[in-house]
Amino acid sequence: MGRKWRSSLRKKFKKLGRDVENLINAIKGDKFWYAIEGNKSLIYVVALTRARTFSEGNYWARCTGIGRVKVKKEIRKLVRRYRILLVDLNKRVATKVLTWKAFKKAISANLHPDYMPNYLNVKRIRKIIREVETLRKR
Question: What is the dihedral of CA 73, 82, 93, 30, to 10 degrees?
Answer without folding.
Answer: 160
